[in-house]
């Protein structure tokens, strides 16, 4: 479906929605000092002419490549050639490559790919006179190239050179490099301006409050939980305890990649505005960074006897370093002040998996079994043929007795189920879990020991939802937060800014009309709507409606499908002349398709869902947050994705009707404020 086939009449309503109330990221000035960059700055000679091999054997004549793509997609080089650090001698080789000397301009930029390893794989800007390293940048553990902008005004006019440094023999122990630009060309392509990425553009953690720290990073969501540095994955320990919502995350503060797992900790009075608290739990062997032993995913409960906040989690031991250990056991810690979580001295509380659990044994989730008036927990497992969920019971949250297998799959949703959650909802019981890299639910009945599934489906129709966790808040709502990531992608562009991973907004779960599991955004998100909403009513779109642009906003619309003659409507998000996300709704088959194949640096693909519109009204509620996209349909469908635009201009929002007219009863675009300010 080509947008160019649409008639050229454009309704530009220019709603005047601008960036948030907080300081937006800016580009440095470019024109005061402009000098040529190094010789053969984009390797377009097809050789290393102008570059000097300083040491090692990782760089050589085979390093310059005109390959277009690798196993994960295009390299995205500029021109024909680029430096592919793997091509000459693989990951195991090391070495250094130096550019010719050049005078520093006010600004420069380049493309980098390859290993994320700030100490061992990087490009450095080095001053000729004293050899001082002025700036450094590492890659993102992906072959694809990403644009880094360096403000070099402080050294303008001085003689400098670039040093490509690879001292890693590990996987991704290589650096890719291309297209060094200086002066105003460094900042963009024609009318388009690059998002200013790179570690040197990020304020140091602790130098400022999260509000301003996060505002300055163009990729950083403003109302989602992200780590100030390092990596997060699964949300854990969700609970409203003594009034405050608690959000823990699997966390590696040392690097923006998975590693020895800590539990980060944040709390909130409304499940929208988060406040970072000290790390709740640390891995057991911090002195050996190669030992991946850590505190894996788990859950929280309020101890009935003491009122304490108890965490119950998988204690993982790396058997490379501890060959006699049981790798996955269940341990606990408890806090009376909500800050310090001392470990229970008699850990583990479940010392080994039950029989027939060879695929794994992890992610205990505690719930109060209303049928039996006792604590229960579910834990994920599998027997190499199908995933399964084990059930335990306890009177005091510490002594656990095995009940049996709560539920077992048929293998189609994976042979190891992670992060199971089990809870009553309306008059049913809901089981959801992660398997085969996706989130699945089953809804059915439960008799105290066994679950019988009646309905099943995907928890989320988009790419970036895994390890969702449920909790019931003090008002009795069933809430959930999901990790906006997945294990299949190599695309973590924010690694170049020193962080990776984000948690979704808080959702409320409900049983859909069709009996499936539905999600909707919690009502408290309206508290972010600090400025004027722009709204339209009774809008007939026959071609294109430009809604304006926004980087942190909520788009809500209702389309009257009965009064629509168009075959499809396309909602363009994160859009500029160079890139955009396409969200297409096909009227004939009620299918919505998310297309990210031309949406910047992230994972590209298409994902779809069929939307139920019993009253012939399509209602969508879309949350846009710099690199986050969450799309909720009124029937309970949710599509969660991360989006990583290349250009600052990629924030336009447009609606196009194809082959006819589309009638919208209402369209509102509301800027959302930072939840950290
Ligand atoms: C490269 O790494 C090795 C082993 O980790 C280390 O001994 C050496 O000092 C490093 N070389 C440089 C130039 O940093
Ligand atoms: C224990 O706590 C749970 C969860 O907060 C609650 O539902 C239950 O009623 C409590 N049980 C007792 C015996 O107090
Ligand atoms: C099951 O899978 C695990 C993990 O892949 C493997 O270590 C184990 O040998 C397998 N066990 C059986 C019984 O096939
Ligand atoms: C629950 O159902 C299972 C499977 O039908 C059965 O084996 C078990 O005895 C039942 N348990 C109770 C407490 O009714
Ligand atoms: C719905 O229709 C569109 C347009 O014909 C098509 O591309 C899409 O594959 C269809 N989806 C389903 C689920 O049939």
In short:
The protein has 677 residues and is mostly beta strands.
What are the defining features of this structure?
677 residues, Jelly Rolls, binds 2-acetamido-2-deoxy-beta-D-glucopyranose, 3 domains, disordered N terminus, 7-stranded mixed β-sheet, globular, mainly beta, 1% helix
Continuous helix count = 1
Q: Compounds present?
A: 2-acetamido-2-deoxy-beta-D-glucopyranose
Portion in beta strands: over 45%
| Termini Cα gap | 42 Å
Strand order, biggest sheet? 1-38-47-40-41-42-43
Write down the Rg: 26 Å
The third-level CATH topology of the largest domain is Tachylectin-2, Chain A
Low-confidence segments, given as residue ranges, are 1-22
In total, how many domains does the architecture comprise? 3
Main structural class: mainly beta
- Overall pLDDT score: 94
Please report the first level of CATH classification, the CATH class of the largest domain.
Answer: Mainly Beta
Assign the CATH superfamily of the largest domain: Glycosyl hydrolase domain, family 43
The largest β sheet comes out as: 7 strands, mixed
EC number: 3.2.1.26
Protein name: beta-fructofuranosidase
Keywords: Glycosidase, Hydrolase, Signal
InterPro entries: ConA-like_dom_sf, GH32_Enzymes, Glyco_hydro_32, Glyco_hydro_32_C, Glyco_hydro_32_N, Glyco_hydro_beta-prop_sf
């Amino acid at each position: 479906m080509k947008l160019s086939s649409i008639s050229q009449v454009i309704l530009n309503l220019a709603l005047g929605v601008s960036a948030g109330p907080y300081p937006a990221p800016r580009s440095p000035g470019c024109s005061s000092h402009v000098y040529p960059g190094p010789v053969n700055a984009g390797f377009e000679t097809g050789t290393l002419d102008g570059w000097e091999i300083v040491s090692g054997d990782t760089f050589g004549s085979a390093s310059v490549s005109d390959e277009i793509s690798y196993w994960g997609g295009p390299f995205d080089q500029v021109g024909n050639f680029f430096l592919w650090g793997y091509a000459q001698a693989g990951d195991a080789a090391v070495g250094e490559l130096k550019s010719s000397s050049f005078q520093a301009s006010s600004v420069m930029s380049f493309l980098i790919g390859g290993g994320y390893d700030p100490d061992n794989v990087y490009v450095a800007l080095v001053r000729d006179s004293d050899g001082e390293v002025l700036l450094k940048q590492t890659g993102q553990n992906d072959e694809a190239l990403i644009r880094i902008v360096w403000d070099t005004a402080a050294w303008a006019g001085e003689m400098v050179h670039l040093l490509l440094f690879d001292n890693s023999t590990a996987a991704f122990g290589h650096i890719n490099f291309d297209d060094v630009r200086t002066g105003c060309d460094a900042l963009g392509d024609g009318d388009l301006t690059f998002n200013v990425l790179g570690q040197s553009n990020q304020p140091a953690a602790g130098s400022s409050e999260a509000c301003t720290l996060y505002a300055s990073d163009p990729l950083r969501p403003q109302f989602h939980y992200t780590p100030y540095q390092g990596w997060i994955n699964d949300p854990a320990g969700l609970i409203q305890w003594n009034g405050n919502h608690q959000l823990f995350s699997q966390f590696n503060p040392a690097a923006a990649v998975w590693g020895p797992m800590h539990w980060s900790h944040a709390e909130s009075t409304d499940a929208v505005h988060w406040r970072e608290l000290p790390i709740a739990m640390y891995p057991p062997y911090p002195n050996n960074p190669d030992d991946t032993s850590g505190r894996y995913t788990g859950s929280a409960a309020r101890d009935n006897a003491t009122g304490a906040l108890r965490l119950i989690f998988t204690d993982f031991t790396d058997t490379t370093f501890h060959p006699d250990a049981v790798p996955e056991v269940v341990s606990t810690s408890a806090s009376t002040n909500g800050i310090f979580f001392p470990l229970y001295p008699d850990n583990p509380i479940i010392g080994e998996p039950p029989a027939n659990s060879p695929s794994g044994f992890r992610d205990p989730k505690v719930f109060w079994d209303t049928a039996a008036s006792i604590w229960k927990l579910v834990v994920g497992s599998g027997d190499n043929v199908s995933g399964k969920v084990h059930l335990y019971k306890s009177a005091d949250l510490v002594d656990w007795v095995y009940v049996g297998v709560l539920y077992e799959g048929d293998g189609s949703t994976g042979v190891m189920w992670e992060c199971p959650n089990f809870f009553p909802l309306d008059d049913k019981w809901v089981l959801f879990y992660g398997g085969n890299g996706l989130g699945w639910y089953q809804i059915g009945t439960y008799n105290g020991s066994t679950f019988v599934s009646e309905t099943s489906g995907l928890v989320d129709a988009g790419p970036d939802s895994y390890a969702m966790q449920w909790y019931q808040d003090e008002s009795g709502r069933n809430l959930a937060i999901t990790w906006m990531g997945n294990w299949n992608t190599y695309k973590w562009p924010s690694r170049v800014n020193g962080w990776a991973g984000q948690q979704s907004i808080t959702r409320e779960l409900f049983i859909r009309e069709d009996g499936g599991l539905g999600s909707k955004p919690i009502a408290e998100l309206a508290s972010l709507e600090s400025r004027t909403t722009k709204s339209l009513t009774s809008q007939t779109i026959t071609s294109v409606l430009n809604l304006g642009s926004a980087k942190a906003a909520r788009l809500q619309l209702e389309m009257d499908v009965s009064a629509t003659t168009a075959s499809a409507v396309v909602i363009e998000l994160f859009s500029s002349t160079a890139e955009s996300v396409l969200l297409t709704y096909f009227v004939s088959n009620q299918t919505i398709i998310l297309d990210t194949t031309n949406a910047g640096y992230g994972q590209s693909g298409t994902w779809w869902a069929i939307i139920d519109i019993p009253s012939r009204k399509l209602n969508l509620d879309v949350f846009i947050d710099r690199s986050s996209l969450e799309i909720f349909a009124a029937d309970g469908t949710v599509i969660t994705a991360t989006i990583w635009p290349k250009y600052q201009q990629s924030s336009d929002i447009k609606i196009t009707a194809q082959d006819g007219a589309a009638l919208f009863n209402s369209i509102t675009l509301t800027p959302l404020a930072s939840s950290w300010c």
